[in-house]
Design brief:
Blueprint lengths: L3 E6 L10 H6 L10 H9 L4 H18 L2 E6 L6 H13 L5 E5 L5 H5 L16 H12 L5 H8 L5 H16 L10 H11 L2 H13 L3 E2 H7 L8 H10 L3 E4 L2 E4 L2 H10 L2 H17 L3 H11 L5 H14 L4 H14 L7 H14 L3 H12 L5 H18 L2 H14 L4 H15 L5 H18 L2 H17 L3 H15 L4 H10 L3 H16 L6 H14 L3 H18 L5 H14 L3 H14 L4 H18 L3 H13 L12 H13 L3 H17 L4 H15 L2 H11 L5 H17 L3 H17 L3 H13 L5 H7 L11 H11 L4 H8 L3 H15 L4 H9 L2 H4 L9
Parallel strand pairs: 1-2, 2-3
Antiparallel strand pairs: 4-6, 5-6
Length: 865
């Protein structure tokens, strides 16, 4: 069976056309990889990178099932950000299928793919040697190079194209009898060849070079200036004879990128700008603002309003699929217009909106300040500051947010709706800066004002502030009411806040239902909500003990942040991944993550401090530095009742804090932790995770065995294995101290199982040590401790289930649906399976597992036991 080639070509003009090189390759050639209807569906997803990757992956999986596929992409250095994102997603997604990727460009493939995307072979093209150049000279000139020719060839630095161009120039010069005028370098040779052409042919070559991509012949002839003294066919023939351009599938293209660059370098700058402007107008007339934008960018000069309008129109279309490109174009559009031009204010406000939506806080503030310096209308000033405030909130720069809007609010004289929006923005910022009661009071006042004026934007901001303030105080039912109303008002992109609040209330089944629902209906079609949804999924997996999935979610969240230019949830990703590392005993890895967070997260210290401080304290305790741990955690615990962040009241921290206090012989700190846990339980009555932890810590501080017993019963109902394990662990140790060995070992067994289920190796080892000292032995300990690095028994439970489904013929997508996890999670597990079983394809995986069929039966999804 033959290999089906899929070939894509990147070019600088397509760099703002999301995914164009990858998408176009699917319909290239005589036998396109996808049918026209599938291609239409892919095009419809071009502005949603995750959906786009999913649809292309599905089609490639189907094609690979029919036979091997070779996917080649040339000139990768020109790939747009979405194409790079697609490649990073598709390569691991198609692991084990007969799909080979051939990526050609100036950069190393591992720089694009990362170190853990399977086998990557780097083939570096080295310059031609002196021997090679001599052989080429013999072939082109009919004799070995003389000293003069060798001197010319040295200028090529071993580049084959440059060498051929120089040799052809020498040959042409010799044929004219003009031995001394052969061009000494490539650009000069191209410029000379361009000058030698008649005017019409020269204009045609210039058009093709400036186009930056293959130019259809009808477009070229339409753009070619008339009345040049030659018919178009004659100009085409002369241009082809020059060797500067070629014909590919009814489209004209330079013979090589270096030829294109040399032709452009030979043209006067005004000529290049004029040609770019002509192309921009052509694409705009056809309704293709994205195709027009690169030409408008190249043509733009100060005061060029038509180019600025093209740039901002393209930027608005790119906000969702490629926010970084959108921000770049918006910033350039604003720089292109001049304040004295009548269009300046309209274009400026459109640029500001794009920069705010793409979280370019610095550029947004620069544009806002330029506008504010030139307008007097108070309501317009307030509206501009309101847009800037949202950008500052998303980037965590809250101090600057308040310093900008406070003077406006203090001065008054604002339209009621504008005043309500600014008041709500101030209240939202204060949820990260003020204590719980003060922040809640400010949010309530903002909500009253927003309801009174009826402005939906103000109401959405005020409800968000109320939800944040309630959550920071640990009043999760109040937070749920606010976030639920916000979702009903603002739509599904606010659902993630509601989901995380349900998690705090131990309503994980309801949270999962909403996650599944929003993922099915909106998750892969609206990139704007993806980071928040992935963050909610991250905490769903982490809190339910699915540590491997949680780490995968964290990596996906960071990758999405890079693609969508949305780093709001980077802190959550770092905290979750570092927590998993600490639970596994990987203290150095956790410490490195905490250190990197300061560079990763561009937000005010008030936003970063609480979560990272807790992690730093945990790291210090794990390293045995209890004094430093207590110094770090004491302010967090003592300020928890009036904190401007919910991290200090997170139930999973309470037991950790208490243990550090006891180990550090700091009874005062331990008592503060008990009071904080009881406060959280009081504010969330009936929630097992809060009530059980508070009861356990109070029972331990009083030495009250019945109270500890009740706490273990309550925590057994908690859906969080770390807390159910903590309850059983605490009760088991108390029973052992009371001399009730049999009952103690039963509880400690439960704790060991819970810790093992979530891969909390540190806690599991501690429980095992206590049971050993009590004389107990368990076969499961050796299995867990001596798990090999390779082979079937080295796989985790999740990896085994994925391996079995893939071996049975499931795709990544269908396996994800079967297991109720994300496709990314399946891909991560599958890479681990391939490495541990030393297989390179899904066929090898199936054959490997088929040989061990009897031993695998009990592991199959849906089997008994």
């Amino acid at each position: 069976m033959g290999v089906r080639p899929v070939v894509g070509q990147c070019d600088p003009i397509e760099q703002v056309s999301p995914g164009a090189p990858v998408i176009a390759a699917l319909r290239a050639g005589r036998e396109p990889l996808v049918a026209i209807e599938q291609y239409r569906q892919i095009l419809q997803a071009a502005h949603e990178p995750l959906l786009l990757a999913e649809r292309i992956a599905t089609d490639l999986e189907a094609a690979a099932a029919a036979g091997p596929v070779l996917f080649a992409i040339d000139d990768l250095q020109w790939a747009d950000r979405v194409s790079r994102f697609l490649i990073r997603m598709l390569v691991p997604r198609l692991l084990g299928l007969p799909v080979v990727w051939l990526l050609a460009g100036w950069e190393n493939a591992e720089d694009l793919l990362g170190p853990d995307h399977g086998h990557v072979e780097d083939i570096t093209l080295v310059p031609l040697t002196a021997t090679d150049l001599a052989a080429v000279t013999q072939d082109r000139l009919g004799h070995v190079p003389d000293e003069r020719t060798r001197r010319f060839l040295e200028a090529s630095a071993g580049n084959p194209l440059l060498a051929l161009e120089l040799l052809d120039g020498l040959a042409r010069a010799a044929a004219r009898g003009d031995r001394d005028t052969a061009p000494a370098q490539f650009n000069a040779a191209i410029a000379q060849r361009l000058r030698d052409l008649p005017e019409a042919a020269r204009d045609l070559v210039a058009l093709v070079a400036v186009a930056g991509r293959d130019l259809p012949v009808p477009d070229a002839l339409r753009l070619l200036p008339s009345a040049r003294g030659l018919e178009p066919d004659g100009a085409l023939a002369q241009a082809f004879d020059s060797g500067l351009i070629e014909l590919h599938d009814e489209a004209l293209a330079p013979r090589h990128d270096l030829v294109r660059e040399a032709v452009c370098a030979a043209l006067p700058t005004p000529t290049v700008r004029a040609l770019h402007r002509r192309f921009a107008q052509l694409h705009l007339d056809e309704g293709h603002a994205l195709a027009a934008a690169p030409h408008a960018r190249a043509a733009a000069i100060a005061g060029d309003v038509p180019s600025a309008l093209i740039l901002i129109t393209a930027a608005e279309q790119l906000v969702t699929p490629s926010p970084e490109d959108a921000g770049d174009l918006a910033a350039l559009a604003f720089r292109t217009v001049r304040p004295e031009q009548i269009e300046w204010l309209e274009i400026g406000r459109r640029c500001l909106a794009v920069l705010c939506r793409t979280q370019r806080a610095g550029d947004a503030l620069a544009v806002a300040d330029q506008i504010l310096a030139r307008v007097e209308d108070g309501d317009l000033v307030g509206a501009v500051e309101g847009e800037a405030a949202w950008a500052l909130w998303l980037s965590g720069q809250l101090g600057q947010l308040l310093s900008r809007i406070e003077p406006l609010l203090s001065a008054g004289r604002l339209d009621q709706a504008v005043a309500a929006r600014l008041t709500s923005a101030r209240a939202l910022a204060n949820t990260r800066l003020l204590g719980g009661q003060d922040a809640a009071a400010g949010a309530a006042r903002a909500l009253d004002l927003a309801r009174a004026c009826g402005d939906p934007d103000a109401l959405a901001l005020a409800l968000h502030a109320c939800g944040e303030a309630a959550r920071n105080e640990g009043r999760h039912r109040d937070a749920l009411h606010a976030f639920r109303e916000l979702r009903l008002l603002a739509g599904p992109h606010q659902l993630a806040e509601e989901i995380t609040t349900l998690q705090f209330l131990d309503r994980y089944k309801h949270a999962q239902l909403l996650l599944d629902e929003v993922w099915a209906e909106h998750g892969d079609t609206t990139s704007a909500i993806l980071p928040a949804l992935h963050c909610a999924r991250l905490w769903q997996d982490f809190n339910l003990g699915r540590s491997g999935e949680a780490v995968t979610d964290a990596h996906t969240l960071l990758e999405l942040g890079r693609q969508l230019n949305n780093h709001v949830y980077a802190l959550d990703a770092v905290i979750a991944e570092a927590s998993v590392a600490l639970l596994r005993g990987q203290t150095q890895d956790a410490a490195a993550l905490v250190d990197s967070a300061e560079r990763l997260i561009d937000a005010d210290a008030d936003v970063r401090r609480p979560g990272l401080t807790v992690l730093a304290g945990w790291v210090a305790a794990s390293q045995g530095d209890l004094s430093r741990a207590l110094d770090l955690l004491r302010p967090v615990a003592e300020g928890a009742s009036s904190s401007c962040n919910y991290w200090p009241l997170w139930p999973c921290w309470m037991g950790l804090f208490f243990e550090i206090g006891i180990a550090g012989q700091d009874g005062s700190f331990a008592n503060v932790v008990v009071r904080v846990a009881e406060l959280a339980a009081e504010r969330n009555p009936g929630v097992a995770s809060f009530e059980g932890v508070a009861l356990s810590l109070r029972g331990r501080s009083k030495g009250d065995l019945p109270m500890i017993a009740r706490s273990a019963q309550i925590l057994a109902r908690s859906p969080r294995p770390i807390l159910s394990g903590f309850g059983a662990d605490t009760y088991g140790r108390a029973l052992l101290a009371d001399g009730q060995k049999a009952a103690a070992l039963e509880q400690l067994d439960r704790a060991w199982d819970d810790y093992h289920r979530m891969d909390a190796r540190v806690y599991r080892a501690e429980v095992e040590c206590i049971m050993r000292q009590a004389g107990a032995r368990r076969a499961k300990w050796a299995v867990a401790r001596n798990r090999p690095d390779t082979g079937w028994t080295s796989l985790t439970e999740a990896e085994r289930r994925v391996a079995l489904l893939i071996a049975d013929g499931h795709s990544n997508r269908s396996a994800a649906a079967e297991l109720g996890v994300s496709v990314n999670t399946v891909g991560t597990h599958l890479r681990a399976v391939f490495a541990k079983l030393d297989v390179q394809s899904r066929v090898q995986l199936a054959n490997t597992l088929r040989g061990a069929e009897p031993a695998l039966t009990s592991d199959r999804p849906g089997s008994a036991g």
